[in-house]
Amino acid sequence: MATRSPGVYIRELDLSDYIEAVSGTIFAVLGGATKGPLNSPVQVFSEEDAIQQFGTPQLGNYGYGMHAMLQFLREGRRGVFVRISDGTHQTAKVQISDTDVDALGVVDESPAAYGSAVGEFEAISPGTWGNDLRIIISDVEEDPNSAGDSVFNLEIQAPADNQRPVQNWQTVEKFNYLQPELRLSTDPTSDRWYEQVINRGITGEIAASQYVVATALAQPLWALPGKTVLPGTYRLGSQSVTFTNGTVQALFVPLLSLTVGDDGVSAITDADYIGSYVGQTATGLKVFANPEQSDVNMVACPGVFSAAVINEMLSLCETRGDCMAIIDPPFGLDVTGVIDWHNGTGYAHSAFNSSYGAVYWSWVLAYDQYSKKDIWMPPSGFVAARYAYNDRVRGHHWAPAGFQRGRVSLGLDLEMTPDPSQRDALYTGGNVVNPLVDFVGQGIHLWGQKTLQRRESALQSVNVRRMLLVAKKSVARTVRILNFEQNDQSLWRQFINLLTPYFQQLKEDRGIDEFSIIADASTTTPLKKDQGIMNGRILLRPTRAAEVIEVDFVIFSSGASFAEAA
């Protein structure tokens, strides 16, 4: 019996689900830096963005992480940088105190004359970068809304260039207002309280500071009854302060016990790269343990060739199942040396063996625009850039090597260019070292694409491994929409229909030769159904790259016919 009156009732059923496209070129890098958050995966999208967040790359104990990231971002569009330290990092800060001065504004610089610490400015992240920040306080007046408190304007300045000591400053942030009632206030009950405005901003008016954090340390704050804030220039990480002339009755100067910013790189060890868990907080490589929280496809610790760190990278990639490690060998090895090293011959480690990593040799001489000199750099950053270029012009399932997609355009020289017989030694006989080769008139190129897997199979090829990494991630993200659906033939058909267009396109793009998707009673048995499991199977025959091209020249006598050799 009808439950509604006669009429036409329209319903909408969306069956247009399709497999999610994922990026195959997100480069995760660990290394030291002069600024930025520690042990936190931060996305960077350009060279300018990376430098803005982590500072210019430095030489020495910082490692090569920032250099590698900047090399990658010349071709890639998305990286993830994790800044590490040895635990000795410090944040640049300046504390201020209250004290009396005479009517001429003469400062009694005796420490005994200083009042209690009442406020502090601290750089927003640890490192030496904060030592070059300075804060300018100006336009000080009595707070019109709170007797005994002050209002003032504030500017934050940073170096305008890389010259040290700093000669030129530029204003990077302003908390400036013409009207006294809109200026920053020392009154903690005011909506213009300096700590709140600088740290949190004001919705719809001004953003929080990207450079410093303000902290009120005691009450009363910056002004006592009948006193005012002294205008001046306060340098973070320094004991110097510059004051303007004027008659004042209160002075806020840096305390003598100042903490100077430190990058914490003087004693970085394998443990800092490997990382650990402290409660719910992860450090080092551990920050990438959860693939649902960090989206990456390539991982590198540039210039680090410790077996402990390399094995941790390989283990991470194998456990995640959606990324691979780009491995750097030690600097200064010849052909025999790098073969022995990756096999563990004469070393206190076993052979590196995993399809989730690849090693490239040798190091590359390149110009460093920040130190303004040529330096030797590990190959991982250049390799990641070639992966990005390869993915952009052809696809992740193509081999990132050779004259078409493997040219290292920024390289000036190599430690050594292996000849054909040496390349045979690096690449065959169970060895899996991908050489960089400097061809006369052609430049430096990646001339190999083997993973570290020693067993002969399709997964020994970088392009096959990377094709599977992207395919697995795409399938995993898309098939999630089928969770908790009824486990019957309708679901199995939906599974096949959902994935078929993706693999058909991959076949047309020459990533695979053939495929088959199976989801039926043979894969999801009654027992699996009772266990709440639906099992699908994807069969692939990957397209292999032609790494060796053989050309036969057949010579005939004068009277012979070509048809005879057919």
Structural class given helices, strands, pairing? alpha+beta
Q: Strand portion, in percent?
A: 15-25%
Count of distinct strands: 24
Q: Radius of gyration, Cα only, in angstroms?
A: 31 Å
Q: Can you walk me through this structure?
A:
With 566 residues, the chain is α+β, with helices and mostly antiparallel strands. It folds into 3 domains: 27-87 and 266-463, 3-Layer(aba) Sandwich (Rossmann fold); 93-243, no CATH class; 488-566, no CATH class. The chain is 21% helix and 21% strand. The chain is built from 12 helices and 24 strands. A hairpin with a 4-residue loop joins strand 18 (364-368) and strand 19. Helix 2 runs parallel beside helix 7.
Please outline what is shown here.
The chain is built from 12 helices and 24 strands. It is α+β, with helices and mostly antiparallel strands.
Write the layout of secondary structure elements.
Layout: E1 27-31, E2 42-44, H1 47-54, H2 65-72, E3 79-83, E4 93-97, E5 117-123, E6 134-142, E7 150-159, E8 169-175, E9 184-185, H3 194-200, E10 212-216, E11 232-235, E12 241-243, H4 270-274, E13 277-278, E14 281-282, E15 298-300, H5 307-320, E16 324-327, H6 335-343, E17 357-361, E18 364-368, E19 373-377, H7 380-393, H8 402-405, E20 413-414, H9 420-427, E21 433-439, E22 443-446, H10 462-479, H11 489-508, E23 512-518, H12 526-530, E24 537-542
Parallel strand pairs: 1-3, 1-15, 15-16, 16-17, 17-21
Antiparallel strand pairs: 2-3, 4-5, 5-10, 6-7, 6-11, 7-8, 7-9, 11-12, 13-14, 18-19, 18-20, 21-22, 23-24
